[in-house]
Specification:
Length: 551
């Protein structure tokens, strides 16, 4: 019970009333109607919805069964890991089970029997859904925390990965980075990737078990200790570049790079005490629904926002069909306290009146902040950007930082090197496809509307990675030197991959058309029989001539 109260108190600031309803039925002068607000789902224990993968294969202990011991008891190596015996097995799922009081359950790796080869393991957590952290990630290690490890994350379901935080007992030695603490970061560096030494030093394996990614400390930079000033945090999340994304991910990877050493150097005579054992990975966060949903459900094995505001998609990341009069936008925490729903609109609704900023005074592009909604109304970027600039001398509002490989005033074109996906709508994340022109075969990396690249001489195919007939590929397309039709190797030579003739002894030239004797008499001497028969031929020809002349 005490535990529960402590947990509730701990979560209170983030669970509090903010942005928890999407709409309410209100009565105004014009009668009752719906009013809409920015809204987001509650924070949850994300470990309940995760799939895990542990690499490399065979890194989990117990197959074959193995003995191990602990740093506290290094000479009593009687503990056993055996994958085929449930009581002695340590599979990955034990990092996500409910930790009842009493004995911890944990995943465990093989021991470092192959020292000095490093003992490396990757633990990859995937949600197949964007989530936003609302509290620290806490990883609990039984038998000591790694001396070197790092966290990586992906925002695109594992296609690309980015470093998230580095951990080492000596950051400079392990990663060439100075050691930093999150508590020392400032408002301008709140999303900096750091290396910390706080969670890697030996302190006894029973005493210090946790490794953290400090989310609350980073929130506290804006919201103050105890996170009392959440309004300031929400304001910063809307305005500070990259800050929201810092807490967002679809996948998290823990790279274990060197196990606990018990506070000393590696003792080769007893490698049974070096391994990784993780009993829990706590990830607290919420579904990212772009402030268009306050519910997120687990359906068919994946988390899914229950979208409002006439949006749809796993993250409410686009407008429903027939609600695309205005391009999609995320809801906003601003203005406080209810935010802006930025709902999608059906044709015929009263949106989209074009207004220009009054009295433009400054020259050049000026970022339009979120506050004046008139300007934002003009910011139509098909959902590929939330920001626009006003260019005074052209009197236009243009999107800035178009994402998803788009460009243009309304992010309506594809960047150079990309082409329009015919089956995707303009507000689709997949609207631009990479040309992927073969670097050697093509003239440049641009392509036409159907994805065809412009090829160098001899190259062919949509991506210029093929050769035309009568050309062969070797770091580019080159005209055939020989073939079976027109450029046939002479005198019994054979054509090698259209690149050259392999000539029999005594012949040379591109098509073996030249006898070596024509120019090089020594070769003829050594090939004396050829030489002899040639001489005989010449003599008999001479005799024939003499006969004709009828001497
Ligand atoms: C762990 O993942 C990284 C990429 O994030 C990869 O380079 C490395 O080879 C992986 N290590 C293992 C042991 O699978
Ligand atoms: C990921 O989620 C999407 C959308 O809910 C679903 O269609 C897809 O099957 C899921 N993929 C996996 C590997 O679970
Ligand atoms: C969404 O569309 C319905 C009509 O299907 C409309 O009644 C409702 O008000 C719309 N919601 C928002 C937030 O625009
Ligand atoms: C084109 O867009 C559709 C619809 O979003 C998507 O399913 C498909 O994967 C895209 N094609 C490519 C090659 O990206
Ligand atoms: C793109 O180029 C290919 C090959 O030159 C051509 O067949 C195709 O019609 C072109 N597509 C467009 C839309 O121009
Ligand atoms: Ca456990």
């Amino acid at each position: 019970m005490l535990h529960l109260v402590a947990f509730l108190l701990h979560c209170l600031p983030l669970a509090m009333g903010h942005y928890d309803i999407c709409k309410s039925w209100v009565t105004t002068d014009d009668g009752p109607s719906w009013e809409f607000y920015a809204c987001q789902p509650k924070a949850m224990r994300m470990k309940d919805y995760v799939t895990v993968r542990v690499d490399p294969p065979g890194i989990t202990c117990g197959d074959p069964p193995e003995r191990f011991c602990t740093h506290e008891n290094p000479y009593l190596c009687s503990d056993e890991c055996d994958a085929s015996t449930p009581d002695l097995a340590h599979p990955p799922k034990l990092m996500f089970d409910k930790e009842d009081e009493g004995l911890a359950t944990y995943w465990q790796s093989v021991t470092w029997s192959r020292y000095p080869e490093p003992l490396l393991a990757n633990i990859t957590l995937s949600w197949n859904k964007s989530i936003e952290l609302t509290d620290d990630i806490v990883v609990t290690f039984e038998y000591g925390r790694p001396t070197i490890m790092m966290l990586e994350k992906s925002l695109d379901n594992g296609r690309t990965w980015h470093p998230y935080q580095y951990y080492a007992d000596d950051c400079m030695e392990a990663f060439g980075m100075p050691a930093r603490r999150v508590r020392d970061l400032s408002t301008t560096s709140a999303n900096r990737i750091i290396c910390t030494e706080e969670y890697s030093r030996w302190a006894g394996s029973k005493k210090e078990k946790n490794v953290r990614l400090e989310v609350r400390d980073r929130f506290a930079i804006f919201a103050g200790q105890d996170l009392r000033n959440m309004d300031n945090l929400y304001t910063r999340l809307e305005s500070a570049k990259g800050l929201k994304d810092f807490f967002t991910m679809t996948d998290l990877r823990m790279r274990l790079l060197r196990p606990a050493l018990g506070g000393t150097y590696v003792q080769r005579e007893n490698l049974y005490k070096y391994f990784y054992a993780v009993s829990n990975i706590e990830v607290t966060g919420r579904c990212k629904c772009n402030l268009h949903a306050n519910l997120c459900s687990f359906k068919e094995g994946s988390l899914q926002c229950e979208c409002e505001h006439n949006t749809t998609g796993q993250d409410c990341g686009k407008c429903k069909k027939n609600f695309r009069t205005r391009s999609w936008r995320a809801g906003s925490y601003l203005p406080l306290p209810n935010g802006s729903p930025n709902a999608c609109a059906a044709a015929g609704s009263a949106f989209g009146t074009v207004r220009r900023p009054a009295n433009p005074t400054r020259l050049g592009p000026k970022p339009v902040p979120q506050e004046p909604p008139e300007n934002i109304r003009d910011c139509e970027c098909y959902g590929h950007s939330n920001r626009c600039s006003y260019i005074d001398f052209l009197n236009v509002v243009t999107c800035v930082s178009c994402k998803h490989n788009t460009r243009g005033q309304h992010c309506q074109h594809c960047r150079l090197g990309f082409y329009r996906n015919g089956s995707a709508e303009l507000d689709d994340e997949n609207v631009c496809i990479e040309c992927n022109c073969n670097q050697i075969g093509s003239l440049h990396d641009r392509c036409n509307e159907t994805g065809y690249c412009e090829c160098r001489e001899g190259a062919s195919g949509p991506k210029c990675d093929d050769c035309l007939p009568n050309y062969y590929w070797r770091q580019g397309c080159f005209p055939n030197v020989c073939d079976e039709e027109l450029l046939i190797c002479q005198n019994g030579g054979t054509c090698y991959q259209n690149q050259r003739c392999i000539c029999p002894a005594g012949y040379k030239g591109v098509l073996c058309e030249q006898s070596k004797c024509d120019s090089d008499n020594k070769a003829c001497n050594s090939a004396s029989s050829t030489y002899l028969s040639l001489t005989l031929f010449l003599i008999s020809a001479l005799i024939l001539q003499l006969r004709r002349l009828d001497f």
